[in-house]
Design a protein that fits this description.
single chain; mainly alpha; 16 helices; about 70% helix
Length: about 280
């Protein structure tokens, strides 16, 4: 199924990019187990604890994440059960998916003049903004929060492709000229970040709604209904947090234009943004 999807949606992708997408490893078994628990509507918090605790490395990753200064906890969390009770299954699932980047990818974003730390910070801020903004909209949160964390994963694969094809200056020149990064990516390798991420997610058999929302997060008008709303939320989140993790007055203004255009919840956005900026 993944190969069919890749064939249909990879028209125009360079051969190097196609090969790099095919080379992306499958999800670790522990991550698949956590995802299965999350998708089971009858599962409990203890089921999630049991799934996570089977992988000591995953336990360490989650505890490292929940104790990050970003979340401003007053005490250190030392047990996974505490973390899951405090943050909930949605957030823990998002942290688990984040472990995929750390374990499965060699991150070199030099074509974007971006460090690994800057990339990680941007991903985490996007996820935190989603978790705070959409906490009252559980049906949307379950799709948008992990999408916000991992939507730029395709950028890692594109960077690898540009390095191998000796096109490392394409994105840098576009950034210097103030041009659209997605357009520069398509010019350099035939696809933009969201196309590549959506293709990888499909390969991993992720929720089809998440794949769809990521693919249309650059252009929510390309889809309809709740998918359009979720794609618009994701678009506004990505506009708020710049690729290097910075949040500026200009990026907030751009996001607010999207929020107004698609009639998203501005009041909760501002409350969520305040928490992200204070972290």
């Amino acid at each position: 199924m993944a190969k069919i999807y890749l064939k249909v949606y990879s028209m125009g992708m360079s051969q190097t990019l196609l090969e790099n997408i095919e080379a992306v490893p499958t999800l670790p078994g522990s991550v698949q187990a956590v995802e299965a628990v999350y998708q089971d509507v009858d599962s409990t918090l203890q089921d999630m604890v049991d799934a996570v605790e089977k992988d000591p490395l995953l336990v360490a990753e989650i505890l490292r994440e929940v104790n990050s200064p970003l979340y401003g906890l007053s005490r250190t969390i030392t047990v996974v059960g505490q973390a899951i009770s405090l943050f909930g299954k949605e957030a823990i699932r998002t942290f688990v998916l984040n472990s995929v980047i750390n374990s499965s990818f060699r991150v070199d974003l030099s074509p974007y003049n971006m460090s690994q730390d800057e990339f990680a910070t941007a991903c985490k801020k996007q996820a935190y903004l989603a978790l705070q903004w959409l906490r009252k909209k559980q049906n949307i949160l379950s799709i948008v929060a992990p999408a916000a964390l991992l939507v730029d994963l395709g950028r890692v694969v594109i960077a690898k492709t540009l390095i191998e094809d000796a096109k490392t200056d394409v994105i840098a020149k576009a950034l210097e000229a103030g041009e659209n990064i997605a357009d520069a990516e398509k010019l350099a390798c035939g696809a933009q970040t969201t196309d590549v991420t959506a293709t990888i997610f499909h390969k991993w058999n992720f929720n089809s709604d998440m794949v769809h929302v990521i693919r249309y997060s650059d252009d929510p008008e390309g889809t309809v209904g709740e998918d359009k709303e979720m794609a618009a939320y994701l678009k506004a989140i990505r506009e708020t947090v710049l690729p290097n993790g910075n949040i500026t007055e200009e990026s907030i203004a751009t996001a607010k234009e999207t929020i107004e255009e698609f009639e998203l919840d501005l009041d909760r956005y501002e409350m969520a943004l305040e928490k992200v900026l204070a972290s």
